[in-house]
Amino acid sequence: MNHELLKHITHNPDICHGKPCIRGLRYPVEFILELLSSSMTTEEILSDYKDLELEDIQAVLLFAARLSQIKSIHKIAFF
Predict the structure, then answer these.
(1) Residue 15 near residue 43 (C-beta atoms within 8 A)
(2) Of the chain's two ends, which shows fewer C-beta atoms within 10 Å, N or C?
(3) Coiled-coil regions in this chain (predicted)?
(4) CA-to-CA distance for 16 and 5, rounded, in angstroms?
């Protein structure tokens, strides 16, 4: 199932400057993560963005989890 969820995450150099997005739509993964980190619930996001599906949100979280599994991180600027 994880492999199928990750198919929701696409990247295209012509959409959002090649950032990972949801299903080729102009919703970058980072945008959805920011919404979730601002305390919006999945239900609120789905209500506000009608073209998103529950599986899209799940795919974003899985994608972020996979990114956190990298072996080393270079210093990142935090704002």
Answers:
(1) no
(2) C
(3) none
(4) 21
